[in-house]
Fold this protein.
Amino acid sequence: MSQQFDVVVIGGGPGGYVAAIRAAQLGFNTACVDAYKSPEGKPSLGGTCLNVGCIPSKALLQSSENFHAVQHDFAKHGITVDNAKMDVAEMLKRKDGIITKNAGGIAFLFKKNKVANVHGLGALKGRQGERWVIEVSDNGAVVDTLEASHVIIATGSSPRPLPGVAIDNQLVLDNAGALALAEVPKRLGVIGAGVIGLEMGSVWKRLGSEVTILEAMPTFLAAADQQIAKEAFKTLTKDTGLEIQLGVKIGEIKTAGNTVSVAYELNGEAKTAEFDKLIVSIGRVPNTQGLGAEAVGLQVDERGFVVVDDHCHTNLPNVWAIGDVVRGPMLAHKASEEGVAVAERIAGQKPHVDFGVIPWVIYTSPEIAWVGKTEEQLKAEGVEYKKGTSGFAANGRALGLGHAQGTVKILADAKTDRILGLHMIGPMVSELVTEGVVAMEFKAASEDLARIVHAHPSLSEVVHEAALAADKRALHG
């Protein structure tokens, strides 16, 4: 006898588990099906983000930044540390502990909200009356069958493969392998100068690796505002010490013994680089394999994304899809918001998710963050705008922290003064960018930010100063 539910969510990542909790809060009998297992073979909720993505990478970034501070920054504070050493095993143990704690927290929230936690791979098998049948399998064997009035697909994404290159997570690594290196490689290669490549490259560079990043695009961080991107490139190459080569055409990748060789072309010149480890991070692709899409007629586009409308509804009745498996930015917080919105739509509410006000963050040091339109986009769209910029160099709080690098830039409509974008590089801008998100959600003008009292001394004063600069009345610049 199948278990019957009002809502079944397939996928327990930041989109899926949040959707399940919200659906349960709204009174629906809800189940969440998730197939992820830890390296020890135990079910672990949270998806890629928690297990092998956002959360563990931030843990390693913090560890590496602490080690770098001991070696290079503490002396300026009058603190001397001799013979500092990094215990990689202990660093990984801490990272794994954070994952375990967070995954346990999600399981607790399921229990608290009465969400049925079903482990296995969920697949759509068809309709039985007004209900969808979902078959759950584990290691190829069917372990459960569920029925649901509504199905929310939240199956996430996987690393994009590089044709002809096998990921073994020994010599050639994906994001999971990059987070689990047992020792610091002397020479680390990274293919792809995106978020994962820059963050993982930064971690292992600070711990002692020689890091070379090979990027196919001729422009660094093409999605970011180019004023900020150029500053980021300079800082990451000069201060962090990453070697970043742009406009690279990757050729044959070969492994021999304990090394990986990468043949590539740069500015028409053939080159070869040898590494002890190679991280491949060239983007991600949606997870639809094994979902049963073809069998039930679920529409999937040529790139593998589940096709949805503006409300995340698929072409099938009462089947929804959210997060990385659908259009839009592949960001955990975007998935979560879509999950909440879908649960509320099932309940008859009318929520809204504005893709134009979703923040982006890269957790390098300094951090890079933005929301809204870039200056390049506004120029391409013919939008008349004004801008204000301010730096962290004269900010008292940044100087006290010892991280006084970076810039904040506000873009506003030339006629209405409405904020169109906020772009920044600097200390803790992952937190500061939310000021722009809130302002833009409330359709604020740059004058609104300029007239809000900001605490002194605080990093947020740089945002205030940029807003003042947009009206050509900066006080400290």
In short: The first helix runs from residue 16 to 25. The first strand starts at residue 3 and ends at 10.
